[in-house]
Write a structure and sequence with these properties.
single chain; mainly alpha
């Protein structure tokens, strides 16, 4: 009887510790999202960093980092929380930095509530999808290769959509970020035994779909204005 009680108590402690760890992990990825959103808000008014405020490249990279090689039930909520934190920090940080840092003498501007709400909804929907898809990164099967190719295609499409194949000095930081993001994604993936070639073959057709997906939010935002 006492042994059964000890086992039950141990199981209860493990569940409590698991819930505590899960909550701490969500808080951590949410904080990372907030920091990235604040960086993008700062870059919105900065000439060299401005592309980071418009391209989806950093957000795709965040989704990869918090979801790759994890179970979908873990990857999905982490990706949603991370992207939500980034969106809120970006849309709240933009007017705050405009009013206090960049143009303190100009008339104050407010938060774009409609855009904030729209992007929060997109963050939840996109986070659920990307979290589920990118959780397969690192797998040896075709699904793992397809998930890796999807991430790379989205990174390339988001960067090209912003830079337009340009090589201006303001494009270089984003291009460097994209290159590092692709390498990080490949590092997390299983590229052994010809799987790198498989990823490359899958990336090309997925790149076309990637252009459509990265352009969709701007089109939707234009329709809501």
């Amino acid at each position: 009887m006492s042994d059964d009680l000890s086992v039950a108590n141990a199981a209860a402690r493990n569940r409590a510790n698991g819930a505590l760890w899960s909550g701490a992990a969500l808080l951590l990825v949410g904080s990372v999202g907030v920091l990235s959103g604040a960086f993008a808000a700062f870059g919105f008014y900065h000439r060299l960093l401005n592309p980071f405020a418009h391209a989806l490249t950093p957000w795709v990279l965040l989704a990869v980092l918090v979801s790759a090689r994890r179970a979908p039930r873990t990857a999905v909520p982490r990706t949603i929380v991370c992207l939500l934190g980034a969106v809120v920090a970006f849309y709240v940080g933009k007017p705050l930095l405009y009013n206090t840092v960049y143009y303190p003498d100009a008339p104050d501007i407010g938060v774009q509530v409609n855009n904030l709400v729209m992007w929060c909804v997109l963050a939840m929907l996109t986070g659920a999808v990307l979290g589920a898809v990118f959780s397969a990164i690192g797998g040896a099967s075709w699904s793992g290769s397809a998930a890796t190719a999807t991430a790379i295609a989205l990174l390339l499409a988001a960067t090209i959509e912003e830079t337009g194949f340009g090589l201006a000095d303001s494009d270089l930081p984003l291009l460097l970020c994209c290159g590092c993001a692709v390498l990080l994604t490949l590092h997390l993936a299983d590229t052994r035994d010809g799987r790198l070639r498989r990823i490359g073959v899958l990336t090309l057709p997925l790149l076309v779909a990637g252009f459509v997906l990265v352009a969709a939010p701007d089109l939707l935002q234009g329709m809501t204005l």
